[in-house]
Amino acid sequence: MRSSPLMLDRRDFVKQLLQQRGGLLVVPGLGAPTYDVAAAGDHALNFYLWGAMGGAAMIGLGLALAQPKRRVAVITGDGEMLMGLGSLATIGVKQPANLAVLVLDNRHYGETGMQASHTDAGIDLVAIAKACRFNDAAFVAAQSDIAHARHLTYAVKGPVFIQVRVKTDDVPRVLPSRDGREIKRRFMEALVQLS
Amino acid sequence: MDQTVDIKQTWPDAIYAHFKRCNIRQVGYVPDAGHSRLIQRCIEDPEIIDVVLTTEEEGVALVAGAELGGQRAALLMQSSGVGNCVNMFSLIKNCGFSCLVLVTMRGEWEEFNPWQIPMGSITEECLRLSGFSTYRIDDPARVDEIVGLAADRAFGENAAIAVILSQILIGKKDWR
Question: Engineered SS bond to A29: which of A80, B80, B143, B150, CB 3.0-4.6 Å?
Answer without folding.
Answer: A80
